[in-house]
Write the structure tokens for this entry.
Amino acid sequence: MKKLMYSLLAILFAIQANAQPIQSKLPLGSPSPDFELQVRLAGQGSPQQRNLASYHGRWLVLDFWTKYCISCIKGFPKLQMLKDSLSKEMDFTLIGRNDQKYNSGIEALYQRIASEEKLRLDIAFDTLSFQAFGVTATPHVVIISPEGKIVRSGGGDELSLAKLRELIHGTERTSSANPMAKDPLIGRSFQNSNHQSELGAYSHKAQGGAEHIAQQYRKGKFTTFRSNLANLYLLAYFGRSHWSSRDSLYGKYWPQPVLELRDSSSFANHFDSGKGFYSYRVQLLDSTAGIDRVMNAMQTDFQAWTGQNARIETRNMPAWELRTISKATARKLKSRSDTAYFQTDHSSLSLKKGKMQQVMNILRRYHPAMITLDATGITGDIDLELQASFASLPSLERALQAIGLRLVPNTRPMQVLVISDP
């Protein structure tokens, strides 16, 4: 045991000794750090060296991404659209992290995706710029003014055509330094003979909110430090704010509230600024009470605080079914391999002696907003190869059709949380 402890300490000290200093998040309005990138312009030809001075007098968007960031890759076509629309005033450069430990092969991956999506984006692969700009998570977008100052740095919520045009032309609407200052829900509290509760500003230290009441409930007390209003309602009525395809709720409960409101602005949120996110605490006076009492308390709170009505209804909701194109599909996919093999990245899947569930996992991972159900009837082992940009639904559909499968839109009855005006 001592030898193991000493070995672990030695590894830890070695990592610290070789670690590169990470720049803390750069304040808005500060000069941009200089950088040197080998940029392949429009993804073509030989890379050309670019630094901060290369972009002087023009707006610059740096879009940082990593190999396993699905939302980054799904954003590539949008970035292409923005580049095409704003090319006269603004440059856009993708920067892929190419460390060999976690992002090996990122260059080849991008080329496959770019070919499939017909991308013409400026692209560089680098690690030092991640450190220089303090990028510790992706997606992350930095916008630099023509004068070389940081004007935006965050998760990419600012990347819309309207917002970028406002930024370029100086017509951007300014917001309060405290985005929660005018939120009428912050500071609300409730107390009766069963419980007491309060709703406050979200905790800056919290990375995410509670997803399951049962995981946070202790002795009559439940707290979530960063949840938006939709998630708080889901917790109140379903006991969960999120559930995966492996959960029993999947395909039976609709994952978002259906809003039938004249004004739904109270449900708007912005992760980077924290607008629309809250901390919530409820304490039951009976510390032995069950989770259903917590849910009842939350329902009482939000009806009192918002004045909105909420109810659970059974409705036919959209769902996609994966089906075989013909009876021959099952025979073609039937495994002829002796050993199991599974290899995938964002643009390919190689499966031997596998299960159809692994194909469903690809669909659900890259397109979580869609409810997708296995209607193939294939239960045995399968062999298949998929080549597609998985983040692109049309590309994925074409690849599925090539092996005898198709996605068919349908509906199915689900439990839906409906929020409406009184």
